[in-house]
Design a protein that fits this description.
The structure is a single chain. The protein is of the alpha+beta class. 25% of the residues lie in helices and 32% in strands. It has seven helices and ten strands. The strands form three sheets. A six-stranded antiparallel β-sheet has the order 4-5-6-9-8-7.
Length: 245
């Protein structure tokens, strides 16, 4: 570790935070890696643990580091940001961040439509849907566990390479997704979800429920995304502020 300068007006914890940040930027400390403990850093820099704690808190506030309960402090990976002001798929949101999207196809099967399918996809009670599950990656890191339900008329999807961008496959068949609705909430990882997303069971996750429509307003699919909030975020652009009196 670098030495701190004691005869300066710059507080020691700010010097240490800056030094750790510089090492991360130079990739001497890699994203997602665990940094040394407060005791180890205290010994390396020759300062108190209180000073180290203040430095780490500063880096956590800047979202450069992230604390994981009972595990330690880790270097944050760059989050993928998806704007809610436009209709955008996972692959496109990754690419706009300069990252590499990836997909692992898990399953696809024809099943009886659920009440929610009948409502949102405008189906009949005895209709069936294609239930598709995929795991989405960014730079080889699992980020989203995805489940989509399609009306049976989209059965041609079963003959496609479903490791590709689903939106691109639909465009190849002349289906353009032009709008959608999204409901965002919170859920907690089941054992299966934790294994797929490489997190701990019961960790808090983002739950996104979606319906996609074509240009004439017909539903194409409904689905849900279980999202690792440490690696993904939504952004909303507001054009004006309304003051409450």
């Amino acid at each position: 570790m670098s030495e701190v300068v004691r005869d300066t007006v710059v507080p020691l914890y700010i010097q240490i935070a800056g030094d750790i940040k510089s090492k991360i930027e130079r990739k001497e400390i890699l994203a997602n890696s665990r940094i040394p403990t407060e005791l180890e850093l205290s010994s390396a820099y020759g300062v108190s643990r209180i000073t180290i704690r203040k430095a780490l808190e500063l880096l956590v506030d800047e979202e450069i580091l992230v604390r994981k309960q009972r595990i330690g402090t880790f270097v944050s990976d760059k989050k993928i940001s998806r704007s809610l002001n436009s209709f955008m798929g996972f692959s496109q949101s990754c690419e706009l961040e300069g990252s590499r999207p990836g997909t692992k196809f898990l399953s696809a099967e024809l099943v009886k439509a659920m009440p929610s399918d009948i409502k949102y996809l405008r189906l009949q009670e005895d209709d069936k849907v294609i239930r598709m599950r995929r795991l989405r990656y960014c730079n080889d890191v699992p980020v989203v566990l995805e489940e989509n339900h399609f009306p049976k008329k989209f059965a041609y999807l079963l003959a496609e390479d479903l490791n590709r961008s689903l939106h691109q496959i639909l465009r190849d068949h002349g289906i353009e997704l032009s709008s959608g609705s999204k409901t965002i909430g919170v859920c907690y990882a089941t054992r299966e979800e934790a294994e797929w997303l490489e997190i701990k069971e019961h960790d808090a996750l983002i739950l996104s429920k979606d319906i996609a429509y074509d240009a004439v307003g017909d539903p194409i699919y409904s689905g849900k995304e279980i999202i690792n909030a440490d690696r993904y975020e939504y952004k909303i652009l507001t054009n004006s502020m309304v003051r409450e009196e």
